[in-house]
Specification:
By secondary structure, this protein is an all-beta fold. 1% of the residues lie in helices and 29% in strands. The strands form five sheets. It has an eleven-stranded parallel β-sheet with strand order 3-5-8-11-14-17-20-23-26-29-32, with no helix packed on it.
C-alpha cells in the first residue's frame, strides 16, 4: 500500500510550530522558533482574567497540575500554535458535583479543541493523566462489577480532545484519559447538543498517533477518526460507551493501523471501518493482534456491535484478533441490510480466535446478516463451536466464566492479566505475512515511537513481551 510519509527532523527539546508543508500534508516544521512558554503550575487552562474560554499554547511542564473548570468554555489550541504536555502532568476537571452547573452537564463539560498541534508526551514511568478532580465523582473499582446505569465511568465529565477540520498533528503517548464524552454546547460545530467523542480527528492531511495509553470511560465513541493518517497501538480501552459507541470508529479520509490493543467491556464494536463522510481517501483500517473481551452487550440497537466491523464502503485487513465472549464475531456487511455494504473486494481477514461460554455467543461467531466466512486459519471459526472449547488460557481471568456471570457489568480490567500462558492455543497461531501500513512516520516525539509489526501469537500480548505493555 502507498504510504504517505513526510520526512522531518526531530528537535525534541524545542517547542515547534505546526504548519502545512504542502497541500497534502501537515507536519511540525524543524527550525521554527519556540512559541509560547511554560504555562504556570496550577493554572486553569480554559480561563484567564475572567474570560469565557481561553486560547492556549506552550508547554505544560513535567510533573505539574492544571485544571479545566466546568464554569468556563473550551480551551483552544489555535491554528499555527502548539501545545506540548510533558510527562507526569495532571489535567484535572474541576467544578461542582451537583446542581444546575454540575460538572458534565451541558455547558459545563469543557474540552480541549485542537486547531493547531497537540503533543502529549507521557512516559511509561510517568504517564500524563486526564481525570476528574473530585475523588467522589470517580468510579470506585471496589464496586466492580457495577451497573452502567450508576457507574460514573460513563458520565462524560469533560469534552475530550476535539481536532478541528484543519488541525495539525495530534500525538498522544503514555497517557491515562478518563470520563470523556461530555455534552457539547449548542454552538459546537461538530456535535451540537450531543455527547462529544472522546478523541475526534477530522483532517485527512494530519497525523494522529495514540500509543500506549489507557482510555477509561466514555459516553459514546472513545475515538472517532473522521480524517487522518493514524497509528493506534498498544492501548487499553475500558468501559467505552454507555448504550452506543465504538472504541475506535474509522470513517472516510482515514488510513492506518489498529494493533495490540486490549478492549474490556466495549458497548458496540471495538473497532469499525466505515467509509461514511465523503472524504478522501477511503476508510482503510489494518486491524491486527488485538484482544477483545466481553464487548457488545450494552448496545441499545439490537443486533449491532460486538467486536470488529466493516461496513458502508469500509476496507482493510483483519488478522490475529482474539475475541472472548463478545456478543458477535467479526462482522463484514455484504448487502441485504439497512447498513450499506463494505468494500468486500478490499478486505482480507483470517487467523481469528473466537471463544464463547454460551451457545448464544458461539452461534454468532459468524454474525447473522453478514457475509463473514469461516477461514481455515481461524480457531473456533464456525457457529457450531461447542461453548467453552479452546480456552485461550489467560494468565489470570476466569474462563469458563462462573454461573450467573453478567457480561454487561463485567466490563473492567481490575487485577486480571490477559497475557497468554505458554501453553495457550493462541501461541504461534498468528499470521505474519503482511505488514503494518505505517501511515505515520516513526519518531519518538512527532510520530509513532514504534509501529509493532504483526505478531506470531494471536492477540495483543506476545510471548516475547512485545505488543501491549499494560
Amino acid at each position: 500500500m502507498k504510504k504517505r510519509l513526510v520526512p522531518v527532523c526531530c528537535l525534541a527539546a524545542m517547542l515547534m510550530a505546526a504548519c502545512s508543508k504542502s497541500d497534502t500534508d501537515v507536519n511540525i516544521q524543524p527550525n521554527d522558533p519556540a512559541e509560547g512558554s511554560y504555562i504556570a503550575d496550577g493554572d486553569t487552562l480554559n480561563t484567564k482574567g475572567g474570560s469565557n474560554g481561553r486560547n492556549i499554547k506552550g508547554i505544560l511542564k513535567a510533573g505539574s497540575t492544571y485544571y479545566l473548570y466546568s464554569d468556563y468554555a473550551d480551551a483552544v489550541v489555535n491554528t499555527g500554535d502548539t501545545l506540548i504536555i510533558q510527562s507526569g502532568v495532571k489535567v484535572l476537571f474541576a467544578g461542582p458535583s451537583t446542581g444546575p452547573k454540575a460538572i458534565g452537564t451541558q455547558g459545563h463539560a469543557p474540552g480541549l479543541i485542537v486547531n493547531g498541534t497537540l503533543l502529549v508526551l507521557g512516559a511509561k514511568a510517568s504517564p500524563v493523566l486526564f481525570t476528574v478532580q473530585d475523588p467522589a465523582l470517580r468510579s470506585d473499582p471496589a464496586k466492580d462489577p457495577q451497573s452502567p446505569n450508576t457507574d460514573p465511568a460513563f458520565k462524560g465529565y469533560w469534552g475530550g480532545i476535539q481536532g478541528g477540520v484543519t488541525s495539525g498533528d495530534i500525538i498522544i503517548k503514555w497517557a491515562h484519559l478518563e470520563y470523556l464524552g461530555g455534552l457539547a454546547p449548542a454552538t459546537d460545530p461538530a456535535r451540537p447538543n450531543k455527547a462529544r467523542y472522546g478523541i475526534f480527528t477530522q483532517n485527512p492531511k494530519a497525523n494522529f498517533v495514540l500509543e500506549d495509553c489507557w482510555l477509561y470511560g466514555s459516553f459514546d465513541d472513545m475515538v472517532r477518526v473522521a480524517g487522518g493518517k493514524f497509528e493506534i497501538l498498544r492501548n487499553t480501552f475500558e468501559k467505552v460507551g454507555f448504550q452506543a459507541g465504538e472504541c475506535v470508529n474509522v470513517k472516510s479520509g482515514s488510513v492506518g493501523d489498529i494493533a495490540y490493543n486490549l478492549v474490556l467491556g466495549g458497548t458496540g464494536n471495538a473497532f469499525k471501518s466505515a467509509n461514511a463522510g465523503g472524504l478522501s481517501p477511503q476508510a482503510n483500517a489494518n486491524i491486527y493482534n488485538n484482544t477483545i473481551v466481553n464487548t457488545g452487550y450494552r448496545q441499545a440497537k439490537v443486533g449491532e456491535g460486538g467486536s470488529l466491523d466493516f461496513e458502508n464502503g469500509g476496507s482493510g485487513l483483519c488478522y490475529n484478533n482474539l475475541l472472548v465472549n463478545c456478543a458477535f464475531g467479526l462482522a463484514i456487511m455484504g448487502g441485504g441490510s439497512s447498513v450499506p455494504i463494505a468494500d468486500t473486494a478490499n478486505i482480507d481477514y483470517g487467523n481469528t480466535y473466537n471463544y464463547g461460554d454460551k451457545t448464544s455467543i458461539t452461534s454468532q461467531f459468524l454474525p447473522s446478516g453478514y457475509i463473514t466466512a469461516q477461514q481455515p486459519t481461524d480457531i473456533n471459526g464456525g457457529n457450531a463451536t461447542t461453548p467453552g472449547a479452546n480456552n485461550p488460557l489467560f494468565v489470570n481471568y476466569p474462563l469458563p466464566v462462573p454461573a450467573g456471570f453478567d457480561f454487561i457489568n463485567n466490563d473492567f480490567v481490575g487485577n486480571y492479566n490477559f497475557r497468554l500462558q505458554a501453553n495457550s492455543p493462541a501461541v504461534g497461531k498468528g499470521y505474519t505475512g503482511f505488514a503494518a501500513y505505517g501511515s505515520v512516520k516513526k519518531d519518538a516525539t512527532y510520530g509513532a515511537t514504534e509501529i509493532t509489526p504483526p505478531g506470531k501469537d494471536i492477540g495483543a500480548f506476545q510471548q516475547d513481551n512485545t505488543g501491549n505493555q499494560h
